[in-house]
Every structure is written in C-alpha cells, then in structure tokens.
Amino acid sequence: MEKDRRRSLGKAAIGGSFDLIDQDGKRMTSEDLLGKWVLLYFGFSHCPDICPEEMEKLVKVTDMVEKDPDLPPLLPLFITVDPERDTPAVVKAYLKEFSPKIIGLTGTQEQVHAATKAYRVYFSAGPKDGDNDYIVDHTIIMYLINPEGEFVDYFGQLKTAEQVLTGYTISVAKYNALKNNSWFKL
C-alpha cells in the first residue's frame, strides 16, 4: 500500500548513497545513517559568513529537537564541498566551533562530487587570490532525510530554526502515519 501511495504521489529524485570519510578519518557511508533522522548541510570550513550562520541554525534545531521528548533524535550532518582544503582534521576543528554533535564528512574530489550530485548541490570554487585562498559558491539548503535514507524535505537559507523544527515535526508525523498505514493519525 505504501509503495502504491509513493508511486502515485511521485517522489523527488534527490538524495542517494555516499561513501565518505568522517572528521576522525573513519569511512562512513549513507547506510551507516539508516534508522536515524538526519539534517544534512553542504558547506565548507573557509566560508566567511553564510556557512557559520547555517551551522549555528543546524545546532539550534538539533538542540530544540533534544528538548522535545515527543520527537525522535535528529543527527546533524555536514558534508564539505571543498575537499581540497577540508581534510578530516580541518573538518574536525571547524565543527568543534559549533557542536560536538555534528558529524562532518569529506573525501576525495570524486567522492564529494558524487554526494553533491546525488543531492543536486551546486558548487563552484572561485579564483584563487595571492595566498591561494578562494571562496566556494554553493547551494545553501539543509536536507531532511528519514530513517530509511530518503530525502523528505529541504530548508533554504531564509528558513528560521523554528521553521525547520516545524518542518521536521510535520515530516516525523507523516512518516509515523505512513508506517501505521493511516493518514488520519496526524
């Protein structure tokens, strides 16, 4: 019944598997996240303004979810779009500025490209300056992934932490209703 419902409603072709390295140098795949609700953000550690704001929002949403006993835990996940500079050690130091709860992922150019392609994330490194520094232009979206590893919602830069929490709460209720085979339990 659930498969028929999904087939008739359609589903965005966003998301997919990835195989990356976490901030401790350990391999992590998308399969390692199955069974968990995940809020995923793509960014880079040298970002001067937008990424830090979005990372703070990511942490705020996670903290608000933890305070609500009716909501399942939410795992904050960061994937770099700048693997040239964002080694596991750099990602680890960057995440330390925000929260120890965040899992950070990096990898080879090919691995990161595969993850960004799966989520339809645009990114492009700008020109290098005299110090070999550069900015990476990229999509500014948080992706909500359900325990089955499926993309269910996204939240743009203009969404507040409270709006992201509301979206998460609604997605959890819909997911639970589907699992219980009833739309009327929302």
How would you sum up the major sheet? Answer: 7 strands, mixed
The spatial strand order of the largest sheet comes to: 2-1-5-4-3-8-9
Which fold name fills CATH's third level, the topology? Glutaredoxin
Q: Count all strands and give the number.
A: 9
Q: What share of residues are in beta strands?
A: 15-25%
Shape: globular
Task: Count the domains.
Answer: 1
Question: Spans with pLDDT under 50 lasting ≥5 residues?
Answer: none
What is the rounded Rg? 17 Å
CATH class: Alpha Beta
Distance between the termini: 18 Å
Shape-level CATH architecture: 3-Layer(aba) Sandwich
| Coarse structural class | alpha+beta
**What is the typical, i.e. mean, pLDDT?**
87
- What is the H/E order? HEEEHEHEHEEEEH
What is the helix content? 25-40%
Could you name the CATH homologous superfamily?
A: Glutaredoxin
- The DSSP helix count reads 5
